[in-house]
Amino acid sequence: MRKPLRFLAIALLLVAGACSQDQSLPRERAKAPEASEAPKATQAIAVPEANDALVFVEGGTMRNEKSNYDGKAVTIPDFYIGKYEVTQQEWTAIMGGNPSAFPGDRLPVEMVSWYDAVEYCNQRSLKEGLEPYYHIYKTKIDKANTSEFDPVKWTVEMNEGANGYRLPTEAEWEYAAGGGRMSESYTFSGSNEADEVAWYWRNAGNEYLSGDWTWASIESNKNTTKQVGLRKPNELGLYDMSGNVREWCWDRYGEGDLSLVHEGAYRVVKGGGWIGDVGNSHISFRGKFEASGYGPDQGFRVVRQG
User: Radius of gyration (Cα) for the chain, nearest Å?
Assistant: First the structure.
């Protein structure tokens, strides 16, 4: 763990339910070759099998009435999404090291930035014989990144049509978290009761907390991330889309705009985490974070084309 957890959490959260904006410098990352285009896979593989860790999501329009996209003319194509948040075991198998504050093979990986996540997607794609979904230009500054606190600013572009792993868009994330075509319009992913589906500040420690959110109560209660898949799944069989760790999405964060904006200071994070208040675990909650930011409640799950 690179910094004391107390320092990280205070830096990440000023008040309960607030959007974290980590301004710390980036950590040393796994080395990858510079490239002007995504490396080509050596072989193709079939779409995921039914027993894989990916779940098929049949596309359509948003049916969850609690979603930000309810009533909007947004159609989601078919896609596959991780049944669980990416675990530390999965991360280590691809990247070789483990940055997480709470070690454990079946715990979600955390302390990963948006850049770490897209690099993992490409490296996992290569290892599985898939064509990487991202072009990553590490020496080309992303001029659309308006953050004054992000010292990395890699230019990352989509490799349209590639069959490799990627991050979900915010719309895909909400569609899957909201139950897709099977949606029951729950407030949280799979329930209207947070404690059935989510690990958040009240229930992620030794005792169930009451009263108002305070960092002191979380710290003394020894709150942590939890093994993936312990809570109830949602209508599609997806776990932990509310709570545990916040999840990176592809999108830049746009004020009052749910479309894919072309510039901005932040990337979207969804789902809330073990530090956050219950409202952060609503499927509609829109978090934002610098792409270079990372924290002990920050992870992700992967997507592939349908």
Answer: 18
pLDDT tens, 209-244?
Answer: 999 999 999 999 999 999 999 999 999 999 999 999
Give the pLDDT of residue 260.
75
DSSP output for 83-141: SSPPBHHHHHHHHSS---SS--TTSBP-S--HHHHHHHHHHHHHHTT---SEEEEEEEE
The structural domains of the chain, with segments of one domain joined by +, span: 1-306
| CA separation, residue 58 to residues 65, 77, 83, 305 (Å) | 18, 7, 14, 11
- Is 242 in contact with 188 (CB distance < 8 Å)? yes
Extract the tokens encoding 272.
């809330």
Tell me the mean pLDDT in the region 84-107.
98
Q: Look up residue 145 and give its amino acid.
A: N
pLDDT in tens, 141-160: 999 999 999 999 999 999 99
Kindly give the pairing relationship between strand 298-299 and strand 246-252.
Answer: parallel
5 — pLDDT class (breaks 50, 70, 90): very low
How far is 164 from 241, CA to CA, in rounded Å? Answer: 22
Residues 216, 218, 219, 222, Cα dihedral to 10°: 150
pLDDT in tens, 245-282: 999 999 999 977 777 788 999 999 999 999 999 999 99
- Integer CA distances (angstroms), 250 to 9, 32, 247, 261, 269, in order: 24, 20, 10, 11, 9
**Long-range CB pairs of 253-259, under 8 A, 24+ apart, other chains included:** 253/286, 253/288, 258/68, 258/69, 258/72, 258/170, 258/171
d(CA 161, CA 238) in angstroms, rounded, equals 25
Highest CATH level, class, for 1-306 = alpha beta
Q: How many CB atoms lie within 10 A of CB 12?
A: 26
